[in-house]
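Entry 14. Structure prediction run on the chain below.
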Amino acid sequence: MRLVFMVALSVAIGMSACTDDNPLAPKSLAGTYPLLQVNSVDPGVYNPVGAVTCAAAFQTGSLRINANGSFQFDVAYYYLCDPAGASDGPGIITVAGDDSRIVGEVLYLEGCGPALGQPTQCPPWTLQIQRALPNLTVEFLSTAASFWGDPVFTMGPRGE
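Output returned:
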C-alpha cells in the first residue's frame, strides 16, 4: 500500500510540474527573447569552439516560445579559423520544434537543428532553458554543446 501511495504521489508531483501555472511552462514564458549576452559578455566577442584553432562570435539572435510549446531559436554568428581561413564566414544556427518538458527548475525544448557539414539534414537538438529573471538562459545539450564551445546564451527581457 505504501508503494502505491509513493508512486501516485510521484506521478502527481511530476504532473504538477507540467501545468500551465508553472513559471517554466511554455504558456507562462510565451514571447520573444532577444540575445542579450553570451557567456556573460556582450554579443560579438569571439569564443573558442570545439575545433582548437577556431572561434565563433555570436552576433544577434532570439528565442521565440509559443504558448503551445512550439519554439524557434535563432542566433547569427561569425566563424574564424586559423591559419587558412577557408571556412571563415557568417552563419545562422536555427533550432525549432514543438516538444517541451519540465524537469525540476529546467525547461527542455526539443526540436531539430543544423547538422554540421550536412545542410540538408535536421538532427535532434535539445535546448536547456532556465530562468534568470527577467531573462532566460539557453544552453545546447549533446554534441552541439561541445562543438560550439558550450555557450550560455542570456536571452531577454521578454518582448511580444
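The first helix runs from residue 2 to 16.
Filed with the rest of this week's runs.
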